[in-house]
C-alpha cells in the first residue's frame, strides 16, 4: 500500500507524474474544487475589503491565496482546516471549511486531532455567527426576539456547517478502511487457496508414487515366486533329462503349470487394475484444480489412491492357500516343514494377503539364495494378531545360490507391507548360518 495524505493507494498503483494524487480524476476534482473555493474567497474578499477599508486588490489576492489551499487537501488536510478556521472571522472559505473537514474526517489522521480541529471550527463559526447575528438584531429596532434566539440560531448554523461534513467524512473513511480490509482478506484467501492447491498437487503426486510402488510390489510378488520356481524346475529338468526321462516329463509339466498360474495371476491383477482406473489415482489427480481456485477435497486423494489397492486386495490370496504354496516349493525339491498353531479364523483381507505374501517372498528368497536348504514355516493364530516365521538352514555347499536375478527389493517390500498395516517385521541371519523372516500382524486394520 502507498499512503499519501491519510489516503491509501491500492497496491500496484503508481503515483508517478501526479505528485500526491493517485488517479487523474482526483487531480481534476481537487483542482476544480480549489478554483471554486478561490472564486468564492475572491468575492468574499472584495466584500471584506469594503467592510474593513482595505484596498480591494488586497482582498482579492488574500481570497485567491486562501481559497487555492484546497488543492492540497489530500496531502495536508490539517493545513486546509487550519486555513479555513483562520479565515472564519473574515466570513470567507465556507466551501474550503466543508471540504477540509470532510477530508480530515475521512483520512487516517489521529481521531484526537480531528476532534480538536472540528471543535475549533465549530467554536469559531459559532462566535462569528453570534456576533454578526447580534449586530443585525440590534440594528433592527422593531425586531425584538427572545434572549435565546441569537445563541440558538448561532449554534444551529455552526453545527450545520461542521457536523454533516465531519459525519460524512467519518462514514467514507470507515467504508474505505472496510474495503481495504476486505481486499486484504481476499488476497490472503487467494494465497491460501493457492497453497491448498499446491498441497493437493503434492498429495496427488504422493498418491501416484504410492500407486506405482504398490503395482511394482504386486508384480514382484506375483511374478518372482512363480518364475523362481520355474527356473528351479528348469534347472532340475536339464539335470535329470538324460538320466530319468519320466522325472523330466513331470518337471516339464510342473514348469508349464507354474507358467500358466503366473499368467493367470498376472491377468487377474491387471484386470483389477484396469477396472479400478475410474476410481483410482487418475480420478484423484482429476480433482486437483488449484489453478481455477476451486476448493480441493484433499481427503479424496487418499481415498482414490487406495481404491485400486483395496480392489486388488479383495481378489488376492488367503492364508488357507499356504499349504498349496508350500507344496509347490516341495515339488521344486525344497524340504519345507509347515506348522500351524492356534485355531484358524478369518482375518481382514489385507491382513491375510500380506501374511501370504511374506511367506511367499521368504520361500522365494530361499529358492534364490539358499538352494538345497531346509526351510520351516510357522503360522500362529493368537488372540488379536497373527504371526508368521520362515526360517531356513544353511544351503548345500554345491548349490549355494541358484543364480537367479535379484533386485534387492524383496525384504523392503515385505517390511513396507507389514509396517503399513501396523505390524512388526524382523529379518536377519541365524546363528546356524541360515536366515529368518518374522512378522506379526494385527487381526484388524484400523481405519485411516
How would you summarize the topology of this molecule?
Elements lengths: L1 E3 L2 E3 L14 H29 L3 H13 L8 H10 L7 H13 L4 H29 L9 H92 L4 H31 L5 H6 L11 H17 L7 H10 L4 E6 L7 H21 L5 E7 L3 E8 L17 H11 L3 E6 L5 E8 L6
Parallel strand pairs: 3-4
Antiparallel strand pairs: 1-2, 4-5, 5-7, 6-7
Helix pairs in contact: 1-2, 3-4, 3-5, 4-5, 4-6, 5-6, 6-7, 6-9, 6-11, 7-9, 10-11, 11-12
Mean pLDDT: 77
Profile the largest sheet: 5 strands, mixed
Radius of gyration in whole Å, from Cα?
47 Å
* Derived structural class: alpha+beta
Q: State the helix count.
A: 12
Strand content: 5-15%
Strand order of the largest sheet: 3-4-5-7-6
Q: Given the C-alpha coordinates, what overall shape results?
A: rod-shaped
Using DSSP, what is the number of strands?
7
What can you see in these coordinates?
The longest helix is centred in the middle third of the chain and has 92 residues, at 149-240. Helix 3 (77-86) runs parallel beside helix 5 (111-139), helix 5 runs antiparallel to helix 6 (149-240) and helix 6 runs parallel beside helix 9. The protein starts with a strand and ends in a 6-residue tail after the last strand. It has 448 residues and is α+β, with helices and mostly antiparallel strands. Among the domains are: 2-145, no CATH class; 318-448, Histidine kinase-like ATPase, C-terminal domain (Heat Shock Protein 90, 2-Layer Sandwich), CATH 3.30.565. The strands form two sheets. Strands 3-4-5-7-6 form a five-stranded mixed beta sheet, with helices on one face. The protein has a two-stranded antiparallel ribbon with strand order 1-2. The protein has twelve helices and seven strands. Residues 1-17 and 280-308 have low confidence and may be disordered.
